[in-house]
Design goal:
With 439 residues, this protein is α/β, with parallel strands linked by helices. It has 4 domains: 159 residues, Molybdenum Cofactor Biosythetic Enzyme, Chain A (3-Layer(aba) Sandwich), CATH 3.40.980.10; 52 residues, Molybdopterin biosynthesis moea protein, domain 2 (Alpha-Beta Complex), CATH 3.90.105.10; 76 residues, Beta Complex (Molybdopterin biosynthesis moeA protein, domain 3), CATH 2.170.190.11; 101 residues, Beta-clip (Beta Barrel). It is 18% helix and 27% strand. The chain has 7 helices and 24 strands. Strands 6-3-5-4-8-7 form a 6-stranded mixed beta sheet, with no helix packed on it. Strand 7 and strand 8 form a beta hairpin. Helix 3 packs parallel to helix 6. The longest helix is centred in the last third of the chain and has 18 residues. It binds adenosine monophosphate (AMP) and magnesium ion (MG). The site of magnesium ion (MG) has 6 residues, from loops. It is an enzyme of class 2 (transferase). It catalyses: adenylyl-molybdopterin + molybdate = Mo-molybdopterin + AMP + H(+). This is Molybdopterin molybdenumtransferase. Belongs to the MoeA family.
Length: 439
């Protein structure tokens, strides 16, 4: 097979090419019982005031504050308790001068009452067959009343479309009677690992073979991004059968991720398969390590992600390129990994023309964020993924990095970023400045 020359694209340009092709996944209505972590496709507006009526925040007595104006330890006043209401009940009486209604937390304040005195602050007694309370202090108007609309006013925009539904948002949905909710559909992402060396998880090791870890890792990553997964049987490096498998998988998926076989080796058939499919290859080389051979193509309205077989390269490829396709398709406002900065706790002396993504552990200490590379920094390393919670981004073309340098870090945890790639620390000049400062 002829080796075609590939031109490496800067990461930001590669991601941009992808963004130019994203499309929305469509909308469906689902029950409030199954909406956790889904992405809202409609704005949530308060359909009424909260609370919807003035109510009591305590167990106590609803009274007229005026009646207690002269109440004191020496001059207690007495009120007649005319009825008792619990939450959900409405008083039959209007509270007139000299009257009180025994009221429980959450119950509507009766007509005529303008304050609540807590149970603990009154003395109760029965006199002349009447329930009475004795009050030894004055109560101010509006004391202990939760007012209608004090939490939320009708018509307020509470949550915007494109937001992930958290337990707090579920409470909002329920409060305002949204029982069927418009959410974005989850794209179906197929994952098909290629490689004659691959065994499935349940198989015994054999000479020259390894277990397929990429498919399961990628499935977990993409599931966390909110997509539906279709895991395919891994396949041998065989052009004809692979072509057939991929063509079939494309019939039932929105996105097809393959792992392996995308480089320039004798058994790397993916580039030829894209050609035979007639897929439009957006890029087939990215100026990044690991994962420089990452290839992304579009075929009809489907996506093809050819991720490197190296576990770490595969991991990085999914976070950088698959994530925005899935999340932009759901109108998520921050569809990329979140970006932050940290101080490097290790030297990186090797210059590299490509942007490096180093699996690392981000932690906080008293001076701020510190980032430490995790395990073996080789794209074939799988153990470095155990603890890694971020990727250090070291722009290419620098003279290397020293301990204490400020570096940019991206992480798949948390709320994401609108566009991380313009961060000043991701440019080459920031690196040189930092290194010079150290000297
Ligand atoms: P490739 O991208 O096919 O050239 O594979 C690069 C390296 O990753 C080789 O050492 C493969 O054995 C390894 N590899 C490929 N696919 C997988 C996989 N699904 N799980 C784990 N390692 C893999
Ligand atoms: Mg291979």
């Amino acid at each position: 097979m002829a080796v075609t020359k590939r031109t490496p694209l800067p990461v930001a340009e590669a991601v941009n090419k992808i963004l130019n092709h994203t499309r929305l996944w469509g909308i469906e209505k689902i029950s409030i019982n199954e909406c956790d972590n889904r992405i809202l496709a409609e704005d949530l507006t308060a359909t009424h005031d909260v609370p919807p009526f003035n109510r009591s925040p305590y167990d106590g007595f609803a009274i007229r504050s005026e009646d207690t104006k002269h109440a004191s330890l020496d001059h207690p006043i007495t009120l007649n308790v005319v009825e008792t209401i619990g939450a959900g009940q409405v008083a039959e009486h209007e509270v007139k001068s000299g009257m009180a209604v025994r009221i429980m937390t959450g119950a509507k304040i009766p007509e005529g009452a303008d304050a609540v005195i807590m149970l603990e602050l009154v003395k109760e007694r029965v006199a002349d067959n009447k329930n009475q309370i004795i009050i030894k202090r004055s109560v101010k108007k509006d004391e202990n009343i939760s007012f209608q609309g004090e939490d939320t006013q009708e018509g307020t925009l509470l949550v915007k479309a494109g937001t992930k539904i958290t337990p707090g948002i579920v409470a909002i949905l329920a409060t305002f009677g949204y029982h069927r909710i418009s959410v974005y559909k989850q794209p179906v992402v197929g994952i098909l690992s290629t490689g004659t060396e691959l065994l499935d998880v349940n198989e015994e090791l054999q000479p020259g073979k390894i277990r397929n870890s990429n498919a399961y890792m990628c499935a977990a990553q993409v599931r966390a991004m909110g997509a539906k997964i279709k895991l395919y049987q891994h396949r041998e490096d065989n052009f004809d059968s692979l072509y057939k498998n991929i063509k079939e998988a494309l019939q039932e998926t929105d996105v097809l991720i393959t792992t392996g076989g995308v480089s320039v080796g004798d058994y790397d058939f993916l580039p030829e398969i894209y050609k035979k499919l007639g897929a439009e290859v957006l890029f087939n080389k990215v100026a990044m390590r690991p994962g420089s051979v990452t290839t992304v193509a579009v075929y009809e309205d489907k996506w093809l992600f050819g991720l490197s077989g190296n576990p770490s390269a595969c991991f990085v490829g999914a976070e950088l390129f698959v994530r925005p396709v899935i999340l932009k398709g759901m109108s998520v406002l921050k569809p990329h990994c979140k970006v932050t900065k940290a101080l490097l706790s290790k030297d990186f002396p090797k210059p590299n023309p490509f942007t490096r993504f180093v699996r690392a552990i981000l932690s906080e200490d008293i001076d701020g964020n510190v980032v430490t590379p995790a395990g073996l920094d080789k794209s074939s390393s799988v153990s470095s993924l155990i603890e890694a919670n971020c990727l250090i981004v070291l722009p290419g073309g620098t003279r290397g990095w020293e301990t204490g340098s400020e570096v940019g870090v991206i992480t798949w945890h948390g709320e994401g970023s609108e566009w991380p790639w313009d961060h000043p620390l991701f440019s080459k000049s920031s690196a040189i400045k930092t290194v010079e400062k150290q000297r």
